[in-house]
Batch of 2 targets.
Target 1
Amino acid sequence: DTEVTQTPKHLVMGMTNKKSLKCEQHMGHRAMYWYKQKAKKPPELMFVYSYEKLSINESVPSRFSPECPNSSLLNLHLHALQPEDSALYLCASSQERSGPQHFGDGTRLSIL
Amino acid sequence: GQSLEQPSEVTAVEGAIVQINCTYQTSGFYGLSWYQQHDGGAPTFLSYNALDGLEETGRFSSFLSRSDSYGYLLLQELQMKDSASYFCAVRDSGTGGFKTIFGAGTRLFVKA
């Protein structure tokens, strides 16, 4: 069990659908992250939130839209995704900017 | 730019000791982290070195030499369950330490 909870665990969607991925942590961490990971590759940073404000957007296409409603929650809204967006989407949090990151189990996303 | 290099694969026998090396090149440096990821699972934080020297956590140790831009992860008394991918990672201080850059990962195979 991880201290960062992601839902859903699996998601299959068509290219015209709209869906959201959710992430929750109750460790009091003030930095939260979204990563994308393809098979046999390292995690690739997408977004960083610090104190509920977006601090890094790694030139992610606008079909991915992050949201941080409060210090415990992080969402990733998906719209008009492409088949190449199929991947494992990982959420992580950390207490400090230089501290270790705690990852959720991820959402395995498949785009049809 | 920033880059990390680590071997793509390492094979060792149960009970042995294995060392996974990592060399890095970054514009700034906030420390070297190691993560373990089993197939189908999420990355799990193993260790972090901000200063030169050896950090020991149970069967795992990690070493850092900042002057050589080099670190390693040492796994002792290998067990079958240690078969996984191991990522070294550095923080990019250019963005205030928020951006983590992962190496490509080393797949460790432990044989009986």
Note: The CA atoms of residues 12 and 110 of chain B lie 5 Å apart.
Target 2
Amino acid sequence: AQRVTQPEKLLSVFKGAPVELKCNYSYSGSPELFWYVQYSRQRLQLLLRHISRESIKGFTADLNKGETSFHLKKPFAQEEDSAMYYCALSGRRTGANNLFFGTGTRLTVIP
Amino acid sequence: KAGVTQTPRYLIKTRGQQVTLSCSPISGHRSVSWYQQTPGQGLQFLFEYFSETQRNKGNFPGRFSGRQFSNSRSEMNVSTLELGDSALYLCASSWRGDVQETQYFGPGTRLLVL
């Protein structure tokens, strides 16, 4: 069965420090992986997805199929990065638009 | 384009009652998915509708049902409410519902069951 694990519920870093939010997955097939973010009082929104290999707001994430990981990284954290981050998986076996979410990591950037 | 809208935003019901929540997707989007968000279980997929047909279903009891109309608007219904159904219900829309597409989420309907 598919599973997305975000081991850290809470993560605090100082402004300017590097950030890494961990995500590991279990899926027998080729998954599509996403990071969604929810800022305070805003709706859940897509941050980035592995297939587009883009960098959004300075965040990047590399799919490591060997380690089944999709960690989210940013070299220098900003205060506006404080939010709830969810790693999510979708795939043809789970069905189109069936996003399977991790439990989320709340990131706090300390000024 | 207007974003995904959900009504009502807040709802209080008592055990045993039923409830209907509504979701209007972004114009042109034909796929609508529903999720339940609780502190204990996190975000869980309920079901997905595409062109008025349920295409995928999560692991929820039959008390949870939904439908989609020809204009892509969707409703979900929960019958015989239980305390554990208290949650934030999110809907999300996308164009065709392909696995690679971005899902756009609504603000959610917060349901409290007393």
Note: Chain A is about 0% helix and 50% strand.
